[in-house]
Amino acid sequence: MSESRKFLHTSVIPPSSSLTPVLMATNDDSKTLRVKEVTELIRSQNWSLNDFLIAFYSSNNTSVATQRGCYLTKSDGARFAPEELLRLWIEHCPPSSKGYLEHVIIDRASRIIIKETDNARASKSLSVSTKSVTAADLDEDFLLSKLETEYIGLLPHLWFLLNAIVTSANRSEQKKHQAVAGKEIKAQFVETLHFHCPSPRLTHPK
Length: 206
Hints:
Elements: H1 3-10, H2 28-43, H3 49-58, H4 62-71, H5 81-92, H6 95-121, E1 127-129, H7 135-138, H8 140-154, H9 156-167, H10 171-176, H11 186-193, E2 201-203
Parallel strand pairs: 1-2
């Protein structure tokens, strides 16, 4: 096993006893020194920080996988590190690469939503037998409400995305610093969804 592999296999984070006193401090200057010392430690293993992170998040080692799981677990009321990291990547990405980073994010989101939509197509809740259709089912308000409930349950990520787009403040609202209020989003949302998702199907009993 190479020295760099031994480093990841044996200990992802060096024991506190091996850190210099300045690394144990918590002020901003000392945090900077901690960052420098840790990155130097990684470089001493002939790795880049990206090499280390990829190896860490792809490792099959039980100990490393346990640590990885802790860092990727979302707990109520606690900060979610992946969310913070994504924000920081976007904020600090060089202009020459920012467009590609955003493309990668959209591509991943698209795959999640496409998979979500494919699963929704097979849902029996979007299939209504003609024998069970009542006058209430054909009432516009009731139908929109029912569709909204179904789509939120079956397509939560697509709902979140389209709802964010429809309810986002326009230029006038942004300029006046007005909160988005009174927007009729249900009809717009359902109308938009019909271009992306399967509509409820009427099935005729044999």
